[in-house]
Design goal:
heterodimer; A: mainly alpha; 3-stranded antiparallel beta sheet; 7 helices; about 60% helix; rod-shaped; disordered C terminus; B: mainly alpha; Rna Polymerase Sigma Factor, Chain: A; Arc Repressor Mutant, subunit A; disordered N terminus; binds zinc ion
Chain lengths: ~150, ~210
C-alpha cells in the first residue's frame, strides 16, 4: 500500500508541528493505515529514547589535560617590573621599613635626577649579589672561629 | 546589563549560580577562576557534541581543549550577541568541520597515492571515554551515529542540549526551517533504526 504520508511528516505530526490542514489529513490517514500507526509508535519510542540520550563523557585524563592547558593560557600576565625604582619601591622590594632603609640608603647604587633619588633594578640586584658574597665570607669566618656563632641571634 | 544572575532570584534558598554570561564578564575583567567554572560547566556538552560529530575519542578530546582555548583567546574582544552556549557550540562545530574537511582532503591524497586508508586499525585499544552502555543505550547511540552529518549535528543539539530550533539554526548557520526538516527527518530515522527496519516509507514490522 502506497502511503500518502512520509515518515518525516509523521515525525512533525507527532511533535505537533504540521500545518493545521495537513495535520487533519494525516489524522484521517492514520485512522485507516495500520502501517502509519506503527510508525507513530516507533516515533514515540524514539522520542522517549532521545529524551534521555546516551551521552559521551570525556575521560578524566582528557579533562585534566584540558584544565592544565586552560590554566596556562588564562594565567594573568606577570606584572611588568620597571627598570628604574624609587627609594620607596626599593624599600618594599627589600622588605625594609623606612627606618631600616635609611640605615642602608648611603650604600645603595643610587643616582640623583631632578632632585629625586632613583635606583636601577639591575644595579640593585648586583648590589644584593655583592652583599650575599660579603655575608657568606663573614659567616664562613665566623664559623671558623665559633661554629655556634650563626645560631646566636 | 541585567539578568547577570541565572536561576530564581526571589525566594530560592540556594545561592544562585552566576550565569555563563556573568562568568564570561568576570573572566574578561581578569578573574581566571571564572573561566574554570565555565569549563567545568560546559566541557561535557562540548565533548559529547564533538564526539558524535567526529566519531572518535582522541579527536573529540582535542576539539574540547581547542574550543576552550579559542574561547579564552577570543573573550577579550568578544561582543556578546546571544547566549554563551550558542557561541561556544558554534566554535566547537566549526572546529569539527575543519577536522572532517582536512581528513577528507588527506584521504583523497592518500587514495591518489594509493596508500592505505587512514581508518583507524580495527583492533584499537578500548576507549577511555565513558558511556552508560545498556543494550538499549547502545542501540540509540548507534542510531544517532549512523545519521548523515547534518541530521546528526542538529539532533545532538536538539536531544542533548534541549536547544530550540532558533538556537540550533544559529549554531549551524542554517535557516530555521532547514533545522526543523533535519530534526523531523533525524527523529524518523532514529525511529526506523530502533524499530529494526530500514525500509523508508515501506511496510513496517512494527506493531503497536
Ligand atoms: Zn500510511
Amino acid at each position: 500500500m502506497a502511503c500518502s504520508v512520509t515518515y518525516d511528516e509523521l515525525a512533525a505530526y507527532a511533535s505537533g508541528e504540521c500545518e493545521a490542514g495537513r495535520g487533519a489529513e494525516i489524522a484521517r490517514h492514520l485512522a485507516v493505515c495500520e502501517a502509519c500507526r506503527g510508525r507513530m509508535h516507533a516515533i514515540a519510542a524514539a522520542d522517549r529514547a532521545l529524551a534521555a540520550p546516551p551521552r559521551w563523557e570525556p575521560s578524566a585524563g582528557a579533562v585534566l589535560a584540558a584544565s592544565r592547558a586552560i590554566a596556562r593560557a588564562t594565567a594573568p600576565p606577570a606584572p611588568i617590573e620597571p627598570g628604574i625604582m624609587t627609594l620607596e619601591e626599593v624599600g618594599r622590594h627589600l622588605r625594609l621599613n623606612p627606618e631600616q632603609l635609611d640605615e642602608i640608603v648611603e650604600t645603595l647604587p643610587a643616582f640623583e635626577i631632578a632632585g629625586q633619588v632613583r635606583v636601577r633594578r639591575q644595579k640593585l640586584y648586583e648590589w644584593i649579589d655583592q652583599r650575599e658574597r660579603m655575608f657568606r665570607g663573614a659567616s664562613m669566618g665566623a664559623r671558623e672561629r665559633d661554629p655556634a656563632a650563626l645560631d646566636t641571634p | 546589563m541585567e539578568g547577570l544572575i541565572a536561576g530564581s532570584s526571589s525566594k530560592g534558598l540556594a545561592v544562585p549560580e552566576p550565569s555563563d554570561e556573568a562568568l564570561l564578564e568576570m573572566f574578561r575583567s581578569g578573574d581566571a577562576a571564572a573561566f574554570t567554572v565555565l569549563f567545568e560547566r560546559w566541557r561535557g556538552s562540548i565533548y559529547n557534541f564533538a564526539r558524535y560529530m567526529l566519531g572518535e575519542e582522541a579527536a573529540a578530546e582535542d576539539v574540547m581543549q581547542e574550543t576552550f582555548l579559542a574561547v579564552a583567546q577570543a573573550a577579550p574582544s568578544y561582543q556578546p550577541r546571544g547566549q554563551f552556549r550558542t557561541w561556544v557550540l558554534r566554535i566547537t562545530r566549526n572546529r569539527c568541520l575543519n577536522r572532517i574537511e582536512s581528513l577528507r582532503v588527506r584521504r583523497q591524497h592518500m587514495a591518489a597515492a594509493s596508500v592505505e586508508a587512514l581508518d583507524p586499525p580495527a583492533n584499537q585499544a578500548a576507549p577511555h571515554d565513558a558511556m552508560q552502555q545498556s543494550e538499549e543505550m547502545a542501540r540509540v547511540r548507534r542510531a544517532i551515529e549512523q545519521l548523515p552529518e547534518r541530521q546528526r549535528e542538529a539532533l545532538v543539539l536538539f536531544a542533548f542540549e534541549s536547544a530550540g530550533y532558533a538556537e540550533i539554526a544559529a549554531v549551524l548557520d542554517m535557516p530555521v526551517n532547514t533545522v526543523k526538516t533535519l530534526i523531523h527527518r533525524a527523529r524518523a530515522e532514529v525511529a526506523r533504526a530502533l524499530a529494526g527496519t530500514d525500509e523508508p516509507g515501506g511496510a513496517l514490522g512494527v506493531k503497536g
